[in-house]
Design goal:
Structural class: alpha+beta
Helix content: 25-40%
Shape: globular
Number of helices: 17
Number of strands: 17
Length: about 475
Amino acid sequence: MRKTFLLLSAAAVVSAPVMLSAQTANRGLASRYVQEAQQQHPAVVQEFGGAETGARAAYVDGVGRRVATYSGVNPASFRFTTLNSAVENAFAVPGGYIYITRQLMGLMNDEAELAFVLGHETGHVAANHAQARQSAAQRNAIGGVLGAILGSVIGGGIGSAIGQLAQQGSTLNTLRFSRGQEYDADRLGISYLARAGYDPAASASMLSALGRATALGARVQGKENRSTPEWATTHPNSENRVAQASQLARQTGRAGTGLRNRDQFLAQLDGVFVDDDPAQGVIDGRTFVHPDLRLAFTVPTGYLMQNGTDAVSIQGSGGQAQFKTGRFSGNLQAYIQQRLQELTGGRTQIQLIENNRTQVNGIPVEYVVGRAQTSNGIVDVSVFAYAFNQNTAYDFTMLTRGGQGVGQFAPMVNSLRRISAQEAASIRPRVIDIYTVRGGETVQSLAARMAYPNFQAERFLSLNGLAGNARLVPGQKVKLVVYGQRR
């Protein structure tokens, strides 16, 4: 049964004043959705690199509960989790579970910006957006081993085709809010922000920071081959959205006043990992390197990667793929059949076109290329399985247009290699260092310390919300990204 609710249009959100009257309701959440959230929580945490614990996690939880107090929902109904993920994202799932990644926190410059993001996600729950989102996911779910990574890249309508090929798996990555819901959540988040005593102008500064990071990411993406941040995808950003947030903040009558708590926030951010955690592998240009698994591979030019806890997703104009491991008994053919079963759920027949074995960089390999007929046309399915050692196998599972076979992925499947202990030891994490500016230091001199081979000044300015002509003053605190130690 679907519940209905009123969604404000973008225009309505602009004109609707942000009310600051005391909240009278203190309702709970539907037990069905709370139970589902509890059941899904371990899988979400696993997919996004694990949950952080300790002082920083407690700090985020405290800020979240502070803004949730004004949502009309019992604050005890919410659970705020900080994820060890290199994906810039925050999201809410049914039942009041709200997640934010360390990577998104790294874009922020004070506690009020954190409060706005958590308030925005709280607003989605308070407005029952999650129920509508779940209904949409049930109608449009794309599941299976490739469900989380496959969309419309392989031509029109392929999302539906993959939906027929893959029937298992999570629907998390298919869940999207409408633009109207996003504006509604902005409005609610700004209201909570002001009532909780924060500066509501933090909403616009946070959205501006996101816009800067997204624009810079588009510039460097070709060099880094890292996919577009999830937050930029699921929470559409624009100058218009920033302008509307500014207008809503002014309507509260409190813009420019209230708490920002910059020093407290930066103290919590000091030492946070940026980009990939080496324990989960590292994307370095077109190459993925995993120091603990002692392996590396390279994707074709123009293809993008997204690193997850259990898999690396690869996408480009010629198809999409996933690299991961699975149960291995020493029989690569059985391993491949297991992967195909996971992909199809046993509901779609795959006609095998090629079944062979070879070696890649001294690693035994067996592979199959198959073809499946879907309502949207023919899709080629390829699985390359590598016996890395007696107990461990890895595979690339690839989908391309019918007739292409492995296609542009051929160099990738031939690039998997073992890495030396010396190469593995050289891989270090990037971390945020909160630095106090000294006399005579400039944007250029500090940017030179950034642990990146390119766009150092642009990254420094974006990270700190500074204009290109910014002048630093002694005593000012800034964020640097430097090399740290592996944990």
